[in-house]
Amino acid sequence: MGVKGEETRARLIAGTRELIEAQGYFGTGLNRIVAATGAPRGSLYFHFPGGKDQLVTAALTEAGQEVEALLTAPPGEGGDADTAALAERLVEAFAERLERSDYTSGCPIATVALETAGTNEALRTVCAEVYASWQRVLSTRLEAEGFGPAEADTAAGQTLALLEGAVLLASVRRSREPLDHARYAVRRLLGKPGE
Amino acid sequence: MGVKGEETRARLIAGTRELIEAQGYFGTGLNRIVAATGAPRGSLYFHFPGGKDQLVTAALTEAGQEVEALLTAPPGEGGDADTAALAERLVEAFAERLERSDYTSGCPIATVALETAGTNEALRTVCAEVYASWQRVLSTRLEAEGFGPAEADTAAGQTLALLEGAVLLASVRRSREPLDHARYAVRRLLGKPGE
After folding, report:
1. pLDDT exceeds 70 at position B76
2. I want to staple B176 with a disulfide (CB 3.0 to 4.6 A). Which of A40, A152, B95, B105 is the partner?
3. In this model, does residue A194 exceed pLDDT 70?
4. CA atoms within a 13 Å half-sphere pointing along the CA-CB vector of B48
5. A88, A97, A142, A164, best to mutate vs chain B, most B CBs in 10 Å
6. ipTM above 0.85, yes or no
7. pTM for this one?
8. Where do the H-state alpha helices sit in chain A?
């Protein structure tokens, strides 16, 4: 694929990400994606012969990898003393993203995840795998800090639930307060065992 | 309105609730609601002259009130020793509802809330008010147990975030595990101040 082809593909994914974040899976039609990205319709089917679901899968996967990269940054980088500090920074990153987008860009996975959980098994699986990857990274880091494997998985899952719920409430309320409060809760939930 | 009119209205709301829970706001058209409820199209416009959004508002409000009623049950009823026990019972109720529905019925508000947060100010406000009402009830109960007002509001918001996030993850994963883990976290977050 030439440079231009790569650019068109990237533009289609970026446009799809923006649209599904702002109005979800059912609210985003291919016409909308074509109009928003200015990509020729033919190039959409060239790059994504599977159509909308293949494009949405690419968008979800890319967004998931960006968050995962944030979570796999080596300890100490960005000033994170431990996993609790890293998780707090993730919550803060989501809060800033929401504020910057005037509360339209929440979790890049959540809306599609809820819409497709009962209606589209292939996309549900993509969303589940993204969440599982985030939880695994958090859990592995907690184990390295002395949590037992089961304890680490539980704490990572609780952190993820808190983050997802707080992003949801912050979007709906158009306020970063739920995320600010979630930060304290994360610190409390990820306190070292016995602390 | 006669008994039959009341019945038709209730049937329209119940059908809408089921559809928006399973496939969201954008995925639920009026044709679908008419087909699923068997209500004559004329009766839909008679009871809901505002159309789909008025019907969805009624569905969200009714679902919100059901959860609120659960949260306002007098302490001691249902065996709840305190707000933490009540919140744990709420988490359990959501887990059972998910299991019974083969993981299609999660939070009755969340999907529409995320879909409309950036696209439909009237429905966003309805969802925000439902969440605020749940948080207020929890907060008031926590204050009665010795939390300061700000502390109670924060803890109630954290509990709500945890519940919403865990329901989301449980739906996507088709597993009640995130909710089981959220129960422990709720107990930890709602521990009396100083405990």
Report:
1. no
2. B95
3. no
4. 23
5. A164
6. yes
7. 0.94
8. 3-23, 30-37, 41-47, 52-71, 83-100, 110-116, 121-144, 149-173, 177-189
